[in-house]
Amino acid sequence: MEEKGKQDEKINKYSCACALVASMISIIFGYETGVMSGAMIFIKDDLKINDTQIQVLAGIINFCALLGALVAGRTSDYIGRRYTICLASSIFLLGSLLMGFSPNYAILLTGRCVAGIGVGFALVIAPVYSAEISATNTRGVLASLPEICISLGILSGYISNYFFGKLPLDIGWRVMFCIAAIPSVVLALAILIMPESPRWLVMRGHLKDAKQVLLKVSNNKEEAESRLHDIKLAVGIDPNCNEDVVTFKQDTRGQGVWKELLLRPTPPVRWVLIAAIGIHFFEHATGIEAVVLYSPRIFNKAGVTSKDKLLLATIGVGVTKFIFITASTFFIDKAGRRKLLLTSVGGMIVALLGLGFALTIVHQSHDQNVVWALWLSIATCYLYLMFFNMGLGPVTWVYSSEIFPQKLRAQGAAIGVAVNRATNATVSMTFLSLINAITIGGAFFLFAGMSVLAWIFFFFFLPETKGRSLEEMEQVFTRGRKSRDADVELQKTGKDGARVM
User: Quick count: other Cβ atoms within 10 Å of Cβ 501?
Assistant: First the structure.
């Protein structure tokens, strides 16, 4: 029994490979975010644009991502998770080429909008596919891979800034954007060897195909049959049905989902929706986009003036983000989502207060030499990134991709991503105006206040989901006796994540 338990806890290599390939789309998105941070310095000088135009250029990708996210949920329900990833990579390819070859600001903005639609698709489909392909006890690791890939992409963007920034002014930033076309083509080809999500296949009635995929992504036949049993039950198919193909009386391509989510949600679904919207809102309302996108400006305010040093300091931001988000992946299934969230946001509050204090001292000192405040600004900036990426960053995407019921998952995740992108756009497009209005120190005090609200929200509204199968999430979000009884039965079975029958 002990040997079998250890075998079940292993990460299936095939499911890991599938999640890694799907997560490549997140590398492209991360690169687009990171590269803009440094490219803005060169674009402003080359195209002679002002701060308002820079803010629009930085933030418009998120408004377009909002539209992409809302379309992606229904699209993935209709054509499948795999081909939706292929579509997203094609959109990224077009956007990258438009930005790279843009002769003026208008074409550059158009390319940024096209890339934004690809971002919306990527942010919805990569976590959903990774969650649906993985087993319960490894879902946290595999579903957080997209966030790790985003961090890797951001770091790649920062490195690209540093090296291509040495090229002539009118060429360097264009090359930075064109580079993103390469992984887009690679992903479009790699997607052809990936299997479809077994849960989507069951939703479409393709039981034989779903079983074949589950046999590949599970560690043994018993685990595959157990997972198939739970998925059948969740979508309303008799668990004992052994037919290869099942025809549903009702359409299973995502129709009517918006009504179930927004107009007539059950109490558990309403709670799930509030939790998903809340965690996506607070991920960006606590200031991460200000640090990632405008880190050169922050370091400039802290006294780093040379372009080379600014870009090197920004690479440090990418390295910090990547290291800690990768480290958190190994704890998310052991420590649990809730514990990581509360610890992460608590640390962010302390770091943001320190960053706001240090930048306020620097701002008020004018020509005085306050080296300690400069170093404190940089140290607390990195500390903030450390805490964000050990919890709130990866948990947001794992949590929101796993809590919705099967039928509502893709479009429910799309609503969360839409809120995420709207909040991201608001922060990225108003940050420069905000620091002009209340100073850069005041802006980070504001983000500290939002982090306090986030901690309170997570404490009261986000239950732990560690060890629960995707088909059990409605039990987790049901208050009262039914939820407690389910917990007792789960403990009695001794099966981590198995459905209680």
Answer: 9
| CATH code given to domain 12-201+254-476 | 1.20.1250.20
Q: Which of 442, 248, 425 is nearest to 364 (CA)?
A: 442
Look up residue 12 and give its DSSP letter: P
Residue entry with tokens 């805490």: 387
CA 58 from centre of chain: 18
**pLDDT by residue (tens digit) across 33-59?**
788 877 887 888 888 888 788 878 877
Gap between the Cα atoms of 143 and 127, Å rounded: 5
Distance (Å, whole) CA 267 – CA 264: 9
The CA distance from 181 to 35, in Å, is: 13
Residues 6+ apart with CB under 8 A from 375: none
What six digits make up the tokens of 216?
């590949």
Measure Cα distances from 250 to 71, 128, 205, 408 in Å: 21, 23, 11, 15
DSSP state of 245: B
Alpha carbons 397 and 261: distance in angstroms, whole number: 19
Largest CA-CA distance found in the chain, in angstroms, rounded: 78
Percent of the chain with pLDDT over 90: 18
pLDDT in tens, 389-433: 888 988 998 888 888 887 788 788 888 888 988 898 888 778 888
Please check whether residue 36 is in contact with residue 251, taking contact to mean a CB–CB distance below 8 angstroms: no
CB-based contacts of 276, cutoff 8 Å, min separation 6: 399, 400, 403, 404, 412, 413, 415, 416
Give residue 121's Cα distance to chain centre.
11
Q: With CA atoms as reference, report the closest residue to 195 among 21, 26, 24.
A: 21
pLDDT at 393: 87
Domain ranges of the chain: 12-201+254-476
Taking each helix axis from N to C terminus, what angle separates 13-47 and 51-79, rounded to the nearest 10 degrees? 150
Residue 437 in tokens: 């209005």
C-alpha triplet 137, 140, 146: angle, nearest 5°: 140
Task: Give the pair of three-digit tokens for residue 91.
Answer: 């959109």
Q: What is the pLDDT of residue 42?
A: 86
Cα(501)–Cα(489) distance, rounded to whole angstroms?
9
Residue 251 has pLDDT above 70, yes or no: no
Helix (H) or strand (E) holding 98: helix 81-100
